[in-house]
Every structure is written in C-alpha cells, then in structure tokens.
Amino acid sequence: RLQLLRQAGAGTDPLLLRQIDILYHAYLPNQIDTTLLRQIVEKTSAVEQKFSTFRGEMNGKKMTNNEIGQILKKETNSTNRKSAWLAGKQVGALVAADVVELAQLRNAGAQKLGFANFHAMSIAVSEQNAEELDKIFADLEKLSTEPFIHLKTELDALLADAYGIRESELMPWHYHDLFFQESPMVYSIDLDSYYAEHNIVDLAKRFYAGIDMDVESILARSDLYERENKNPHAFCTDIDREGDVRILCNIENNERWMETLLHELGHAVHDKYNDPGLPFLLREPAAAFTTEAIAMFFGRLSCNADWMQRMLGLADSQRDEIAQAAGKHMQLKQLIFARWAMVMYHFEKQLYQDPAQDLNALWWQLVERFQMVRKPAGRDEPDWAAKIHVALYPAYYHNYMLGELFASQLHHYIVHTILKLNSDDGVSYTDRVEVGNYLKESVFRPGKSAPWSAMIENATGEPLTAAYFVQQFVNR
Question: How far apart are CA 397 and CA 343, in angstroms?
Fold first, then answer.
C-alpha cells in the first residue's frame, strides 16, 4: 500500500509525500514473516536483559561498569588492570552465540526483502548511501593514519612510563577504557578533580538555560543515578513527541559523566524543541546522526577550558593549564574515536556479510589495523560481543562518526556566521542565546520535513563534509 502511495504521489503536498517516504522506510524492515520477526524481537529482548543485569567479576567481586572504568583510569598495577579489563569483557562470552544468531536472523529478514544483508538494508532505509559511507571512512583512514601514529607513539611512551613497563609491553588493558575508544588523560591534568566538588546536574541546567534551552522538565522525569540492577549505560528517549523527553544516566561528578550528561541532554533538547506544528511523523531529528551531532557538539564542552572557566569559576591560571593539556587531549580524543569508529563500521559490515566467519579473529585484525593495539597472545574470546552496540544497536555506530563530522561543521558555521568571529579561540557558547536560537530554528524545528542532506545544506550552506572535522582535530 505504501509503495502504491509513493508511486501515485506526483503533485501531492510535499509534507504528505515526506511522511509516506518515512513510513515506507520505517515499515520496510518489518515486511517479513511474523514468525521470523517474533524470533528477532524475543532474541533481542533476551540479550538486552543479559546486558542490563550482568556484572563482570574481578577477584571474586562483582563489578559495575563504573567501577571497572575507574580502575582502568587510575590503577597503575598491570595485573590489576588486566583483571579489570577481563572482567569488562566477560559479558561477551555470555551473549556471543545469541548475537551471531541475531545477525543470521536479521540477514534472513533483509534477504527476503531483496537486500544482500541486514547491514545493506539498514543503510538504505536510513537514506544513506553505502558507497558514500565507504568513501568517508576511507578518506578518514587516509587523512588520520599519520597523525594518529604520531600521537599514539607519544601516548604509548607516557603510558609505559606511568606503568613502569616498556612500550613493547603495552596491552589493551593499559589504555583507559575497555575498547580504547576514549582518550586517556595523560597530559598532566586531571579534569575529574575540577568537577568532583560540583553538582554536574546543576551545571548542565545552568548552561542550557544560558542558551535559552530549558532542561528542568527533562531532568525532573529522568533516571540519573546508579543503583542495583539498573542499566549501566546512558540514553535519551522521547516518549510522545510532545515534550515528554527523558534521559537515563548513572551519574558521578567527574568529567566523563559531565560529557555524557551534556551529550544526552543534547539529544533531549533536539527532541523537546521540535516544531509542534509539524505532523507527528516529522517531529523527530532529520537522521540518527544529526541528533548525534548535536549531542557531540555539546558533549565536547566538558573539557573546553573556556567553558570550564565560565561554568566552574576557575582562575585564568587554571584555564590556561586546562587549555594547554585539553587541546592536545581533544585532538587525541577525536583521532582515537575516529579510528575506533572505523573498527566498528568495518566489523559490522563484515559481520553481516558472513556471520559464520571467525569473528574473534576479524575483531583483532581490525583493532590492530585501525587502533594499533596488540592482541593478547593466544586470546580467542568474543571481545567484540562485549560492545553492546553490536548486539542491540546494529549498523548504527557509523552514525556517531557522521555526527562528529556534522558537529564540526556546525561549530565552524556558528563561530564564523552566527557569532561572526575570525576563530574559535575563547568560544564556549555560555550565555550566547543566539547559538541556542540558531540550533532550534535551523536544526531542531525542521525535524524530518526534508531529508537530512537538505537540512544540513540549509543550516550550514553546504553539504555534509569531513573538511571541518579534519581542520578542527586532524590538521592542528
């Protein structure tokens, strides 16, 4: 029926045609046998439950993700670090067989609809182009490899010195998170200490209010703090597209959770400030990665020296100390994330091309190629399955990288066109209502009324490009 409506749409109201397109893409993945669909839903729910309730065990003690994260951030004993890393990977063995089965089920459904596999279908129904994605990731690999090698060599020397080992002895557990997707804080500054005595929820409220975005109602409905058997991750959900937006976090007063809170509230304000005059189907972000871009745009502020000075009341000397270390940190952070995103993009693409292949070996081939992290000798465990996105948010992770590109494009446009500045030196966005007004009018309110490519061009004057991400973080 939707196909017929699309074919008969000539001369129809553009907003009605847009809704038909959105419905077509939303319904398409589910046009499969209901028995198969039920299997996918039930298996996904079972895996989600395992992730939500599982706690890794270290030295006989069950550990939360926050506890494992703190050990990987601060512990200097390599044996303890390895034990924590192994505890964080234990969930992979629990869910790996289920995830492979899910991939096979998802592929079966996609193939019944005429797609090569689930990954190809997911790209198509997201209004993205597989060849363009391949080109973006190939370009990023080419542009980032030499800068990444340079910075990682410097990072490895600092880490080896901190642990009292040779650089050749560095292993995956010597980095500061389970997947080496975040930048270790090695540049002589501990950003967590600046947030330790502050309530980061109050900081977030004050910042968003200063750009004319009220998050009080969002936070009042949200679940913010850690507790037994609670999902250990973070996310945002829009309940009704009429203002009931909520986030889930496991907040501690540190830089990581300041970033996460700003990030999730970025998603939340994008949802809250939709255009209520649009039809229901159009009252959501233009694409998954455009809301990620907004979340990243705000999340980046947690280690911005000027933002921290304004929000935390820091002295100029403290700001200068942060700026010196944080600039290098942000470059390393973005390069590390870009290389990590390449692992995820290529792994998921190849996972769905052949779920029966040796995924453990594939994972470490990609990690060694893109992240340049050594595989532990003799390790043959499903470390890939410990990443929740592979199981529960399939063929999505590349959107985070596209989001980083769009966030940098927005940053460039806002600095030069909205704020009319020659550079981003000193830019923190605090108390600049024109920034909030621009985002609400040009990015949030259009919603899904046009394809994401049109929204980006209308909002920034040009199509999505990697140029400003490279300018901001690679060619510093």
Answer: 10
